[in-house]
Amino acid sequence: MLRDSVETPTFDRDELSALARAEREIRDGETYSREEIIDEFDLDTTESSEEE
Questions:
Q1: pLDDT > 90: what percent of the chain?
Q2: Cα separation of 17 and 1, whole Å?
Q3: How many CA atoms lie within 13 A of 3 on its CB side?
Q4: pTM for the structure as a whole
């Protein structure tokens, strides 16, 4: 997070706080993988552009 605040000093307090929360969630394993989301919400990931 510190690197982001130095490289992009235009972040405001809320944005830096959101970055810190996201990094903590990742570190604590509170995130979901793409596969977990697809399974949980029964999403269809096939390409619709192939149906011509």
A1: 37
A2: 9
A3: 1
A4: 0.49
Contacts of 4 (CB under 8 A, 6+ apart): 11, 16, 19
Torsion of the alpha carbons at 21, 22, 27 and 29, rounded to the nearest 10: 110
Q: How far apart are CA 19 and CA 45, in angstroms?
A: 29
Ranges of residues in the chain with a pLDDT under 50 are 49, 52
Closest CA to 6 of 22, 23, 19, 24: 19
CA distance to 9, 14, 21, 22, 28, per residue, from 25 (Å): 23, 16, 6, 5, 5
